[in-house]
Amino acid sequence: MDELSATLARITGDSGKASFDPNDVRARRARFVVARTIDGHAVGCGAFRPLHDGVAEVKRMYARPGTIGVGSAMLAFLESEARRLGYRALWLETRLVNDRAVRFYERRGYRRRANFGKYVGNAKAVCFEKVLDDPVRDT
User: Fold this and answer.
1) Tell me, what DSSP letter sits at residue 65?
2) Which own/partner pairs from 15-22 qualify as long-range (CB within 8 Å, at least 24 positions apart)?
3) pLDDT at 16
4) Which residues fall within 8 angstroms of residue 69, CB to CB, at 6 or more apart?
5) Which of 9, 34, 44, 89 could form a Cys-Cys staple with 70, CB 3.0–4.6 A?
6) 71-80 pLDDT, tens per residue?
7) Going by C-beta distance under 8 Å and a sequence separation of 6 or more, which residues neighbour residue 131?
8) Euclidean distance between CA atoms 11 and 101, whole angstroms
9) Rounded CA gap, 99 and 103, in Å?
10) pLDDT in the model for residue 20
11) Domains in the chain, CATH or no CATH each
């Protein structure tokens, strides 16, 4: 988490710490995951929290540079968990200046949407949404 915050501060000028409350991912329909190497070293994290009916918000996504496929695997896991818990969509926010994150989400099927919540009116923020497929149709 500290590595993520330092990276965000370097890229965007804001660590993102104020936008994350650990209690939000302790809820029954929330998840926080840590990606680890085979020998147990943390190399990434990601979470989602309930936002409103049928929608969860992705938070604190990070994969250490050079860990190929970790970010994609974590996001796929979070999407699967969200689907299993009955969410219909995932929303998230990142900063426009964070080109790497913007491209990452766009390549994984996330589409830009109107800014939501505290991001409304923030010209530095860009929000995304991905509608989750019905698990019955996934088979």
Assistant:
1) T
2) 16/60, 19/59, 19/93, 19/118, 20/47, 20/59, 20/60
3) 62
4) none
5) 44
6) 999 999 999 9
7) 88, 89
8) 11
9) 6
10) 65
11) 2-138 (3.40.630.30)
